[in-house]
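Friendly challenge for the regulars: who can give me the structure tokens for this chain first? No prize, just bragging rights.
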Amino acid sequence: MTKMEFIHNIAEKSNLPKKDATLVVNTIFNKMTDALVKGDRIEIRGFGSFSVKSYEGYEGKNPKTHKSIIVQPKKKPIFKVGKDLKDRINTKL
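First reply, four minutes later:
Bragging rights claimed.
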């Protein structure tokens, strides 16, 4: 499902104009993004949780040239699926 399909479904289900549904979806995504940028954790019960994991820098190798390179420390968003969602997906097998 794309973001536009998601907006369309919300507009249909809630009888909202597409413009209002777009504002709702964009506001939710923006607030979630802001929280993750601040390092906060987001938990949606029954669905899952989002968090940011930090990785240390390390010395790696360029696969083409085999020269050593320094990989800078970085952060990565992580999603962990909730039990209810996992169970629901697995019942469809």
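The first strand starts at residue 42 and ends at 44. The CA atoms of residues 57 and 72 lie 5 Å apart. Your move, everyone else.
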